[in-house]
Design brief:
single chain; 559 residues; DNA ligase i, domain 1; D-amino Acid Aminotransferase, Chain A, domain 1; seven-stranded antiparallel β-sheet; disordered C terminus; binds adenosine monophosphate
Length: 559
């Protein structure tokens, strides 16, 4: 059994180098030597995760829980700890500094115990399995005993891991290469296996156990969601046609992406974050069963909210539907959803993702009545495509998605085969990283939000704007509760939170500004919707914001 300390030491080394190759080498030599049953945990922990993606349980260890463990260990009060946490770069650093300053009390164990990788995983499992009234207290007890086994560096790692922010500059792409190198498998094969399974930790185990052969034999499994294929932003139809010459343009519906799986009369619906939302969507399940009967199929589509005339409603309605956890039948009546399919990934055991788009679409059209399909038209002239865009907008949709006719379906990839064209002033999906308590009427809420974009190279978040506009009172209330759960720092006014909630933000202009470290600031930012369906990793990148800034500047120069 491998000591946890070794993993912590590895993470330290990874964070010390900026070289991709060195990072890959460090990780690959470590996992190569690791026993098979520890590989999975090591891969997850290094990527800042606690449980594999398919596990529906959550640890929900928030700042409050960590703070109370810290209080218990150090005997310090809130004020003393806040002083340290304010200066820390994150909760992990804060934990370490606090343990350095105050001699920690530890739970005593019957035998001298050393923390191992497996032991940490078993604590995580116990915490994730807690249910019921006293679970908060039990969770804190478990955390106290876990942290009691850890030294300062291990505690730092644990606190970072539990809040999902490793800050060691190791993302999934590098991990894929490290797995490839460790087990002498082409990186392409590892990437493909991860795409198909959506769980890199499982692929690492399979690679160790069965090498390239094991990965080659991976197939889509019904009821195990794959990551959805994504589209790149395009500025205009002209740009898309220049790239693709001829393409299929589909309506872009503004709803929730759903990957539908069906087999033997059982149907499940998964979001783009791969969560199973079947329970909340009885109407969609009925529609899918009407479309495919009891056939075995995996299909991709979008569900939108519709009014009594069948016209699409804004995204907020869909998100309201998904938030409801009780009286689902009633809310399905109040806000009916409708499924529109645009792709098929597997039918009767035959995998279709390596077939070209036009064949998959043709098959879908042969199998399914037109009323269930996202409208599509193959265009090669700008005029044709513009007319189709106008039609989409007139019918209340968001824009178009252009798809390369001979492209295969690449799960999880945002590439040059699908382009989205949104003519209305683009909005940005940004992440809330901090909030301030409001004034006056808003004093009871966290109502002023710091909005951040992601650095695609380091994965860190940089603030680009602040807003208190766009939410209803009820939404402020809910947002406040959620942010408090995500907080890792609170000085009574400013609350810093784990980047987790994605919001769609409208703005008038991007400005250069020294106000934030990013060097950019949004003018008149306002929240348009809360994107429950998106992860912070899918948020706008700082690199893209810079591009938009430059373009906007060019445009202005011309007027
Ligand atoms: P965005 O959310 O702006 O990144 O745009 C990509 C999303 O558009 C996808 O994840 C889908 O949820 C949605 N979408 C709507 N219509 C389509 C379509 N015809 N093809 C693919 N994605 C679509």
């Amino acid at each position: 059994m491998t000591d946890f300390k070794e993993l912590v030491e590895l993470a330290r080394k990874i964070s010390m180098t900026t070289s991709r190759n060195e990072k890959i080498e460090l990780v690959s030599s470590f996992i190569k030597e690791l026993p098979e049953d520890e590989v999975r945990h090591a891969v997850l922990f290094l990527l800042g995760r606690t449980l594999p993606p398919g596990d529906e349980r959550h640890l929900d260890v928030n700042w409050r829980a960590l703070l109370s463990v810290l209080k218990r260990m150090t005997g310090a009060d809130n004020e003393q700890l806040f002083k340290i946490l304010v200066q820390a770069v994150d909760i992990g650093d804060g934990f370490k500094k606090a343990l350095e300053k105050f001699e920690p009390k530890r739970q005593s164990f019957l035998f001298e115990q050393k923390l191992t990788i497996k032991e940490v995983s078993s604590y995580y499992n116990k915490i994730a399995s807690l249910r019921g009234a006293k679970s908060r207290k039990y969770k804190e007890d478990l955390l106290f005993s876990l942290f009691s086994l850890a030294d300062k560096d291990e505690a730092e790692f644990l606190a970072r891991n539990l809040t999902g922010e490793m800050r060691i500059g190791l993302h999934e792409g590098l991990m894929e290469e490290a797995i490839a190198k460790a087990f002498q498998i082409p990186a392409r094969l590892v990437r493909r296996a991860v795409m198909l399974r959506g769980d890199i930790s499982e692929i690492a185990v399979l690679a160790k156990r069965g090498g390239a052969k094991a990965l080659e034999s991976i197939r889509i499994e019904v009821f195990r969601p794959l990551k959805p294929m994504l589209a790149t932003d395009a500025d205009s139809i002209e740009e898309v046609l220049r790239e693709l010459k001829r393409a299929s343009f589909e309506f872009k519906l503004d709803g929730i992406r759903l990957q539908m799986h069906a087999k033997g009369g059982r149907i499940r619906a998964f979001t783009r974050r791969l969560s199973d939302v079947t329970q909340s969507l009885p109407d969609i399940v009925d529609q899918f069963s009407e479309i495919f009967g009891s056939r075995e199929v995996v299909a991709d589509g979008e569900a939108i909210a519709i009014d009594p005339e069948g016209r699409p409603l804004p995204f907020q309605f869909v998100s309201r539907r998904l938030r409801r956890k009780s009286d689902i039948a009633r809310s399905a009546k109040e806000i009916p959803l409708r499924l529109f399919l645009f792709d098929i990934l597997q039918i009767d055991g035959k995998m279709l993702i390596d077939e070209p788009y036009f064949r998959r679409r043709k098959l879908l059209e042969d199998l399914v009545d037109e009323e269930w399909l996202v409208p599509a038209r193959v265009c090669e002239s700008e005029e044709e495509a513009s007319n189709f865009l106008k039609e989409a907008l007139d019918r209340g949709h968001e824009g178009l998605i252009a798809k390369k006719l001979d492209s295969i379906y690449t799960p999880g990839v945002r590439g040059k085969n699908w382009f989205k064209i949104k003519p209305v002033l683009a909005t940005l999906d940004l992440v809330i990283v901090a909030a301030e308590r409001g004034y006056g009427r808003r004093h009871k809420w966290l109502s002023d939000y710091y909005l951040a974009a992601r650095d695609e190279e380091t994965g860190e978040f940089y603030v680009v704007g602040k807003t208190f506009k766009g939410l209803t009172d009820q939404e402020f209330e809910l947002m406040t509760q959620r942010l408090k759960e995500l907080a890792y720092y609170d000085d009574g006014h400013l609350v810093k939170v784990k980047p987790s909630i994605v919001v769609e933000v409208a703005f008038n202009e991007i400005q250069k500004s020294p106000k934030y470290e990013s060097g950019l600031a949004l003018r008149f930012a306002r929240i348009v919707s809360i994107r429950e369906d998106k992860t912070p990793e899918e948020a706008e990148t700082i690199q893209n914001l810079r591009r938009i800034y430059e373009k906007q500047f060019l445009h202005k120069g011309k007027i």
